[in-house]
């Protein structure tokens, strides 16, 4: 599982999601502004310049206010190019 670090906007891989407290963004996908993908987040400085990053930035700011270091956002925390990771993410939503 990948989480976004709220201070650096970098993705970090977490083997045990229970060991970390994190916020989850519940949102509606926005086709107009575009969504930030897992691939975009590989270069957070470049991703932060994209229109869709506003959602990520606001989520991180709120998480910091709530004293959380990490956030999970489906659009950018799931590597959809990896079928194993995608299946794991889908299955974990039931936990």
Task: Provide the descriptors you would attach to this structure in a database record.
14% strand; 33% helix; alpha+beta; 95 residues; four-stranded mixed β-sheet; single chain; 4 strands; 4 helices
Number of helical elements: 4
Provide the low-confidence segments as ranges.
none
Proportion of strand residues? 5-15%
Shape: globular
Query: Residue share in helices?
Result: 25-40%
Task: Indicate the mean pLDDT.
Answer: 85
The gyration radius over C-alpha positions equals 13 Å
Structural class: alpha+beta
Describe, in plain words, how this protein is organized in 3D.
The chain is α+β, with helices and mostly antiparallel strands. It is 33% helix and 14% strand. It has one domain (2-92). It has helices at residues 44-47, 53-65, 74-77, 83-92, and strands at 2-5, 11-13, 22-24, 70-72. Strands 2-1-4-3 form a four-stranded mixed beta sheet.
Short recap of the structure:
This protein has 4 helices and 4 strands; from the N terminus they run E-E-E-H-H-E-H-H. With 95 residues, it is α+β, with helices and mostly antiparallel strands.
Write the layout of secondary structure elements.
Layout: E1 2-5, E2 11-13, E3 22-24, H1 44-47, H2 53-65, E4 70-72, H3 74-77, H4 83-92
Parallel strand pairs: 3-4
Antiparallel strand pairs: 1-2, 1-4
């Amino acid at each position: 599982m990948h989480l976004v670090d709220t201070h650096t906007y970098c993705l970090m891989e977490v083997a045990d999601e229970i060991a970390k407290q994190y916020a989850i963004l519940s949102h509606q996908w926005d086709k107009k502004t575009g969504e930030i993908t897992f691939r975009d987040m590989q270069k957070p400085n470049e991703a932060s310049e994209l229109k869709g990053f506003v959602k990520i930035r606001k989520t991180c700011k709120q998480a910091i206010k709530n004293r959380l270091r990490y956030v999970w956002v489906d659009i950018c925390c799931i590597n959809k190019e990896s079928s194993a990771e995608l299946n794991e993410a889908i299955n974990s939503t039931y936990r």
